[in-house]
């Protein structure tokens, strides 16, 4: 059966009160309800899998994802450095669907009606008992009208969603002459992956040192200082890439000329040969469609015991879209998914979720092709603050090491295996 | 036509790796799952590095205590072990000790298709 027919059929039986579907798709167990999951990134895949397992395969799970492939942002900076290929980081969703009996719709969500509990896609619609919105981030180019078209974003890639944009940036580095200038612009926090832009700086510097030693990378950071792992990155730049990295804090880009690759800050004009603008971010489009952006009109506030939106209690929000003091990382996104899966199983069974969830986060960053550093913390729900708070005892690596590079590569294989099979 | 499709779906879900739900509190399941990114699903590491499945409870507790008090050097585990309560460590020891050794399935890497959003 063709995928298109499947979609039509979803529209026809609509998964809208389709008794036949409910009776046949889930073997043997009593169906406890239908959860629709929008977005199959780190958060959505993990939620879908663990909701199935922890409900004893009793909750019907339908995932809607616009892409046919999963491309990992973690390790994608290594594609720029040259020690990894984008094809090492690209996977299908087949095993996840097959192992856990997850219904899969390859389509783009275009509208969400939380009052009617209905999700509309470009080729059909369906209803839900609970909705999980795990859409990642959306880029906000509103400060630069000149960047608001596909051609400008091809000339000046963000490479902040891994995929063709990552390849584009890599190819621009390859075609740049020796002696060229790479400019990386970092938005004000919060953004996806706090150490990510500084890891990227290391990877670009690694490539330049090896292949184009007369070139340099200028980092225009809108923040007053390095946001994450400051001392570790500063010493990596100094010791591994002397004379290559030029870091400039408090440098918000005010104007961009995508054709000449010139940018203007409050203080200066900088001309780049390769220009990488990491734009300001907000919760992904599906969260916007459902009207869930209640913090600064950018992020979604949730109850950290269930990830239920503070606006629509039967809608849960996971991953980078969530407003929280924790870093927007893949590890955190999967932890949101675990807490949420447990909470949905409890709530659909008429019980209360865990009152004090606890989870860990680690962000590894590669400072060269082999050496990595980490930041790691444990977070615990604080009922008074209504937040996940940082436990004592977390922290950073003392120094970069090959050993941590090996652990970071192992981390990636384990999180891919956990999220995608 | 649809019948064969739905039948396929049914068979897939029956023959898939349908893991059984485990009798642990949600609190322990969440915490153990957050160890999986480094130690593998249910403590079975995809790389073979640092598997925890089947580890004896007292060995597990001793190792975590050693990371907490610094008597065992580590790259990252001291940062994890210090944030947990004694009760959580005991619960995790119980969880990992009963996990079966399993061959880990890894997703196959693919060539990137260029029409990716
Ligand atoms: C360069 C870089 C390096 C990073 N390195 C690390 C690292 O080393 N470790 C770490 O822990 N984290 C890292 N991160 C952060 C990590 O990638 C994110 O935190 C993580 O991807 C968040 O997961 P998510 O599920 O919230 O969003 P995503 O993974 O972005 O998933 C969102 C999904 O929703 C889908 N979607 C969106 N809109 C629609 C729609 N309308 N219809 C249907 N589907 C839709 C998207 O296609 C996507 O698949 C890095 C990020 C970057 C950019």
What is the terminal-to-terminal distance of chain B? Answer: 31 Å
CATH architecture name of the largest domain in chain A: 3-Layer(bba) Sandwich
Q: How many domains, in number, for the residues of chain A?
A: 2
Q: How would you state the average pLDDT of chain A, rounded?
A: 93
What's the β-strand tally of chain A? 25
**How much helical structure, as a percent, in the residues of chain B?**
40-55%
Which structural class is indicated by helix and strand composition of chain A? alpha/beta
The main sheet of chain B comes to: none
Main sheet properties of chain A:
5 strands, parallel
Sheet with most strands: strand arrangement of chain A: 5-2-1-9-21
Helix content of chain A: 25-40%
Low-confidence stretches of chain B: 1-18
* Ligand catalogue: flavin-adenine dinucleotide
Tell the overall outline of chain B: globular
Strand content of chain B: under 5%
Q: Tell me, rounded to a whole number, the average pLDDT of chain B.
A: 86
Could you give a quick summary of the protein structure above?
The complex is a heterodimer of chains A (about 425) and B (about 120). Chain A is of the alpha/beta class. Chain A has 12 helices and 25 strands.
What does this structure look like?
The complex is a heterodimer of chains A (421) and B (117). Chain A folds into two domains: 3-66 and 107-139 and 281-420, FAD/NAD(P)-binding domain, CATH 3.50.50; 145-277, 3-Layer(bba) Sandwich (FAD/NAD(P)-binding domain), CATH 3.50.50.60. In chain A, the strands form eight sheets. A five-stranded parallel beta sheet of chain A has the order 5-2-1-9-21. A four-stranded parallel beta sheet of chain A has the order 13-12-11-17, covered by helices on one side. In chain A, strands 22, 23, 24 and 25 form a four-stranded antiparallel beta sheet that branches. The longest helix of chain A has 19 residues, at 330-348. Chain A is globular, with a radius of gyration of 22 Å. Chain A starts with a helix and ends with a helix. Helices cover 31% and strands 25% of the residues of chain A. Chain A has helices at residues 3-12, 19-25, 42-54, 77-81, 94-100, 150-155, 164-175, 196-211, 230-240, 285-289, 330-348, 402-420, and strands at 33-38, 59-65, 70-71, 90-91, 103-106, 109-113, 118-121, 124-127, 130-133, 137-139, 181-186, 216-221, 245-248, 255-257, 262-264, 269-271, 274-277, 281-283, 302-303, 308-309, 315-317, 358-366, 372-382, 387-390, 395-396. By secondary structure, chain A is of the alpha/beta class. In chain B, 32% of the residues are buried. The longest helix of chain B has 14 residues, at 2-15. The model of chain B is unreliable at 1-18 (pLDDT under 50). The two termini of chain B are 31 Å apart. Chain B has 117 residues and is mostly helical. The radius of gyration of chain B is 19 Å and the shape is globular. Chain B has helices at 2-15, 26-39, 57-69, 77-81, 86-97. The chains are: A alpha/beta (421), B mainly alpha (117). Chains A and B meet through helix 1, helix 2, helix 3, strand 3 and strand 4 of A and helix 1, helix 2 and helix 4 of B. Bound molecules: flavin-adenine dinucleotide. Flavin-adenine dinucleotide binds at residues 38-44, 64-67, 73-74, 76-77, 108-109, 134-136, 160, 192-193, 196, 284-286, 319-320, 328-331, 333, 363-364 of chain A.
